[in-house]
Amino acid sequence: MATITDDAAAASAKPFDIVATYNELLRSDPDLTMPIAAIEALVLLLTQSASSTISETLDLLEKSTAHLKKSIPNPIGLSAGTDLFQRYLITTLQRPGQLGPAGDFKAIRTHLLSNGRLFIRRAKESRHKIADFGRGFIRDGSTILTNGGSRAVSALLQKAADEEGGPSAVRFRVIYVLSSTATTSGDSSEEPEGMKTVRALREKGVPVSTIPESAVAYSLGKADMVIVGAEGVVENGGIVSRMGTYQIGLLAKAIGKPFYVVAESHKFVRLYPLGQYDLPIVQHVIDFQSEEDIAESTQQSSEATKNEDRPIELPLSASVDFTPPHLISALITDSGVLTPSAVSEELIKIWF
Amino acid sequence: MAEPTGPALTAPSPAPTPASEPQPATENAPQTLPIRDSKPAKPIAKDATAPADAAGNADKALTPAELKKKAKAEKAARRAREKVEKEQVGGPAGGAAPGAGGQARAPTTPKKDAAGGAAQKGGKAAPPRRGSGPGPFGAQSAPVEQKKKKDDKKVAVFGHLYGQQRRTTVAGAGKEVHPAVLALGLQLRDYVVCGSSARCVATLLAFKRVVESYTTPLGTSLARHLTTHLSHQITYLSTCRPLSITQGNAIRALKLAISSIDPSTPESSAKATLCDFIDSFIREKITVAGQVIAASAAQKVRDGDVIVTFAGSNVVKDTLLLAHNQGKRFRVSIIDSRPLFEGKSLARALAKAGLDVQYTLVHATTHAIKDATKVFLGAHAMTSNGGLYSRVGTALVAMSAKERASGVEIPVIVCCETVKFTDRVALDSIVVNEIADADELVSSLPPQQLTGLPDPGANTPAPADNKKGGKPTTAAPTLETPASSSSTSPLANWKETPNLQLLNIMYDVTPAEYVDMVVTEMGSLPPSAVPIVHRISTNL
What we know:
The structure holds 2 protein chains of 2 kinds. Chain A contains 13 helices and 10 strands. Chain A is of the alpha/beta class. In chain A, strands 3-2-1-4-7-9-10 form a 7-stranded mixed β-sheet. By secondary structure, chain B is an alpha/beta fold.
């Protein structure tokens, strides 16, 4: 019995490549976050699969989720979406009534799919909600230090800038920390992450200053607050985000400036890292090398380029760090402004 | 007042704990009584009031200083007598307090004292104050003195925790108490069944036998009568050793299950339901919970870790064994403490499984912490403000892990089933705690001495010591000999030794900020999430 369902799942998964769909979704819509892309890919998968029982559906879901997580170098953000979707499916299926285990499976399926779409639409709207909540934090005459390419931060800042000239005119300045790793390691033609936001803000008349990461401590004295985005919000209220956020958090704490995190609530991950090196991903940020090693690695890389099958590794520009909760003043999410300790409460509410 | 005479007098008189104590007590605690008395001491001789006059006649020959002395002695005696009366009437609550004196009593149980003592102070205690002069002086001072000596041995700050003496035999237990419960009570008392999970399981199993052998008396229903029948068992257990949080939670759940039984259910099926309930409670809340916790906590163990743990927790043991079986390579450093030495069995179990184990006592904490990478702790309970209530010494280990000199924080991980969560709040280790028999601290076997042993018989080791060098080494054995020759611990006569108190406290509270993560069967949480999970797990 089990082998038959396994075969069926494998057969149905074959024509549908979840990883390609996920990547395609992310590429096609620049506003899409990783967890939402993952959920959308899973919904697409379910529409295309021919599963006819609940256990078959769940099995298929589990397999493709595992496959997806394995093929993406940094599955932290993505796992928030897949876990949430899986949890949602299970609770819907366990609920008594017409949609429960006793109900008609086809009805259950259509319900799931339509609700999945609804969820995606809502998640996309959450950024506007966050902007509404967070707008109050940006006061007239304040200077905000931010980094990375978070779309939620960008939406929040643009929302605040849009109101200039309106009844609640907010005049503020932005210090934008541009990552140097992207320019040094990648192509020189590629502009650093965040330049798009900088341009958009300047267009709206917001004075923006761009600084390298090395100037953060120097510039923090001029800033009133720090606002950053996050890739994932973990259970203890800390965040996993672009490399360099942790040091900004430490500096902000040392100087005594508030440190706010902007994140959609679907980015809450069931993960509990105890420190920088406890994340479930492999990053080679620290790489000790002697002269000998360098010579060896250059030789190897020249061979590897010929072979073209090296394992995927997170490039330095895409690496992440963990900012512990005690450095965070508040999290601005679409379910309100939360303290770090309230995150676990939100997560428990979702999961139990 | 009376600085030179004061101390001289307090020593023979039945004064509580330190010599300095009675003075602040007389000035502060029951302010209206003593101050008025201490001043009238002189006027009394000349003034009116009949009993004072009678006393005054005898006093005439005394010097003013002696008068003061006498007034003081009277006061002390009177206070002591009030306490005796209170003890007789007020039961354990009143009996616990007197050793503590006025200051310690005030913050801890002000209401009880006010309720229990107010009537006596007003009614019984007041009249003897007026006519106290000759009364207590002669007749009552002897019994009072004995009483004092006993009270002396209670540490003031923890005075409210002493309560009644732990039960030592089954004699006097009610006839309702089931034999299984009788046996369990003694096992609990002697730490044969120790650890909050084990105590909870053993209690539930004993109660299961109580339920099995129970027959509803005529004229009542099972749902109504079984609860009272159980409370006899519970009272007996709590006289053997105060109930743990887990026991309390389990009993609460069991009573809820009993009261929710429909009275029309036939007795046999009701009993079967209850037995099933007990079995599933043990399975869900403790057995399976422990496995789930071990599985998720073992994920946190990495290759090359040095894991510090304190005392012996079953869940921590399971975690470490599981991680070891998963092929992870790590070292374990166990910190243990007197007098229970719970870490010894943990050390043996881990070493037997092939783990690298280091065992030290709590005074070597800083050394053990030095190369630690993670701290795993068990729990007795988790309080609603995130505090970890666990074997005394846990806080020390957690705090030293957080405040290591190099500044690198070591994550402190607590493994705890949700059945150990409580809605109580603990701000310190004083208000809620348990005091064990202080004799446990005394009766330890003297360490095997290699240098000291031949000393009393022959003096051969002396030259050997001289070779090694200086005076300190030769001085050491001579210092040791009196202790070893008496063959008992120097503390053996602590009850007769004045000014000596022993404190054998069982638990302490680690504040939430020293705990990084709580691993429960419902997932890993920050300590701040304890009340939420407690609410969820009790409502289900």
